[in-house]
Amino acid sequence: MDDTLKREILSHAGNRWSLGVVHALGVAGTLRHAELARRLDGVTQRMLTRTLRQLERDGLIARQDYGEVPPRVDYRLTALGQGLLVGMLPLWRWVIDNAADFRDARQRYDEKTS
């Protein structure tokens, strides 16, 4: 795998909104755009659409357009997306388990540098 592709995948797959989408779909299964937006506090419609397109392009989610009016589009994790979710769980657990230590370190740093 070339370095550029690795950097691109890690860059967007590890961002706030991508991880939120992967987590939401992993927990809830198939969701529509509006349902995802409600689960991702603070995401704009434009950012969600952009994130969904990138995740679909990389094969992490699948998009089902029913061709109806009004539009009905569902999103779900692919096997590749499920693999990302499973791979990220240990890192999320580690962050949660060490949150107090991170807060303490930041406070010490801020006190020292202010």
Walkthrough of the structure:
This protein is mainly alpha-helical and 114 residues long. The chain has helices at residues 3-13, 16-28, 33-39, 45-57, 79-97, 99-113; strands spanning 31-32, 61-65, 73-77. Strands 1-3-2 form a three-stranded antiparallel β-sheet. Helix 2 (16-28) packs across helix 5 (79-97). It is elongated, with a radius of gyration of 17 Å. The model has no long low-confidence stretch (mean pLDDT 93).
What string gives the helices and strands in order?
HHEHHEEHH
**Which structural class matches the secondary elements?**
mainly alpha
Strand order of the largest sheet: 1-3-2
**Gyration radius, to the nearest Å?**
17 Å
Number of beta strands:
3
What portion of residues belong to β-strands?
Answer: 5-15%
Q: Number of DSSP helices?
A: 6
Low-confidence stretches: none
| First-residue to last-residue Cα separation | 44 Å
Mean pLDDT: 93
Helicity level, as a percent range?
55-70%
Give the biggest beta sheet: 3 strands, antiparallel
SSE topology sketch:
Layout: H1 3-13, H2 16-28, E1 31-32, H3 33-39, H4 45-57, E2 61-65, E3 73-77, H5 79-97, H6 99-113
Antiparallel strand pairs: 1-3, 2-3
Helix pairs in contact: 2-5
